[in-house]
Every structure is written in C-alpha cells, then in structure tokens.
Amino acid sequence: MSAVKTILPPAVIGIIGGGQLGRMMALAAKAMGYRIASLDPQPGCPCAQIADIEIIGDYGDSSAIESLARASDVITYEFENINADALQWLEKNAHLPQGSLALKASQSRLAEKAAVARLGAPVPRHLRISGAEDLEKKVFFPSILKTDSGGYDGKGQAALKTPADLPAALDLARGAECVLEEWVPFDKEISVIVARAQDGKTAAFPVAENIHENGILRRTIAPARISESLGARAVECAERIAAGLEVVGILAVEMFVIGNDFFINEIAPRPHNSGHFTMDACATGQFEQHVRAVCALPLGDPSRLAPAVMANILGEHLSRGLEPFLPLLGRGKLHLYGKAEARRGRKMGHLNMLCDGGHTIDDAMRSLDESGIWN
Length: 375
Description:
The chain has 11 helices and 17 strands. By secondary structure, the protein is of the alpha+beta class.
C-alpha cells in the first residue's frame, strides 16, 4: 500500500473509467474543491463531462496511463476491469492508495471466493470449470455457472436448475474459464457498503436490501428488513474483508440471506449501485466517502438521515421522457448519468425516494409501482 499522504484541494484526482460511478465520484470531489482527470476510451463519457482534464485512451494503453499519472496527484478507479500491467505500473510510478490486492481478487470469481473464505467469510459451495467436458463431469443441480472473469448485470451466467439447462451452460463453458456455484435458495439479497481509510479505520453504511430482476439491480431498500443481530454480523464480516484485503476507499459486499445466516456472493472494491441511496439518505454519501479515503481525509459520518428506496432507471424507463417522473420528485431525488443513448437494459440514472415525515418504505414502493414507469 502507498504511504499515507493527505491530498488537499485543489489537487487533481485521476479516475480510471468514465462511467456513471466515475461521474458521481467526480461530482462529489468537485463539490469538495478537487479537480478531475478522466481516462476512458469513449470521448465525452459521463465522467469526462464533469472532468477538468479528459484523457481518451484504452485502460491498457501505456501512454494514456502515463498521461493520467502526470496529470494527477492521486489516482482511483471506478470499476474492476483494469489491465494488470497498467495497475502494476501505477503502483510503482504514481499515487494509487487503493492498491491492487482487492482489485485482483475481484477480477476472478474463484480468487475472490478463496480470498474471502481465507478471511473466515462464508461462501457457497463452488467448483472450477475448465471447458465443456469438465462441466459435464462435475455438474450438479441446482447450480449456476458463471464466467470466472468479466460479466455483470447478469451477463456471463447460465442457470442450471434441471438437466434441460445444460446445453446453454456448455456453450458458456466452451468460451471461458468458469465457476460452478451451488444455487442458494436465499430469502433476501443484502449488501454492506463499507469505507476503509488509509489508517485502517472503517465506517459502514446502513445494510441495504437489494431486489434484482433479470440480473440487474431493480431497487435497493435501506435499511434492509433484517434483524439487528444479522445486520451487525454482516457489517462485521464486511469490515473484516476490507481489512484483510487492505482496501482503501469503498468496498461493497453482496450477500445472500438464508434465515439468520448469510453467504458472500460478490465483492466490489469501489462505489456500488446498491450504495446510491447514501447520496441523499446518509450524512455522507458513498462517493464523498471514497474521495475522503483515497485522499487520506477523515472519514465522514455514514449515519442514515432517513429510510430510502433507490430505483434504477434503465433505458426502457425513459421511453416517455422525464415527465412521468415529475409526480415522484416531491420526495424523490433524480440522478441522471449523462448517457446519450437510452438502450434497453442500460443504466441511465437512478431515483432515491426518501421516507420521512410519516412516509414509509411501503409508501415509497407503492409510489414507484403506481407511477407506471417501472411496469
């Protein structure tokens, strides 16, 4: 890990990745007085729209990486698909407080499960799958096959509930190294968003409950509708993982809940979709907290100000424009990502519905349903 070095405004924060997470990170940083350098292959990407310096180039392009390093006082990243050689170069030649340990673990599902299991976190039964023949020998039902690397929002996965599902899974196994996981009959999906500073201090946000549809996060409910004891154990586990992987910044830990127990599903060493509620419902949002951590500022107060429901806005939800959202804006906070093309399944923004003054989680869920936007 890099030596602790406090970075104060108006220093330049370099962000690898130009998507919505980078954009919201940049917005939080600029509100604190920092300047932003953005690296992304796509000109005019969401983060570049906010940045002071736009560097256009692939994430593995050595000249682009070097340009970002020269322009930046500190560097962070918004996603996991960073070239390993580029990351190693940055660790040696630039200030990258996040380091590579958690990132490398998150780039491989097999490595990730091994890493969190070593730290005493429960993971589902799983097997390495190397090709279609290997899958035919090892397959069990019910299970789910996932590519070992890449894949997001339900991509790179094949459910194996019965032998009839095997052909599609064999096609997936032919194209990539995979992991075969036990199908967990969970009651709920939750996530813990925890920040860890460079001095090892941590601050966890309220445990969130997540509802997925077709592999994409549909809504997040905060706080999660679970017992206090389960929530406390989930937070302790997430903080243990963050410490064990030497995380600096935000770590998201997704979990499956079964009764009063949980299994780790995935981790992400950066701000996360299920933490977007914190932007409006907590004293310090996840993006500001991430900036504080990588810049070695004191972590902010993560306390909840109000219960909230976050609803993702996909391309299809904008088919009638923004007018249908107007009735929700009395209690809703709209965040749009600056993406030009509203494709089906593409995350275009999110809406945080705040629940206070007698307005409950159930009321917020009902308002979202009755709007007709997400139907």
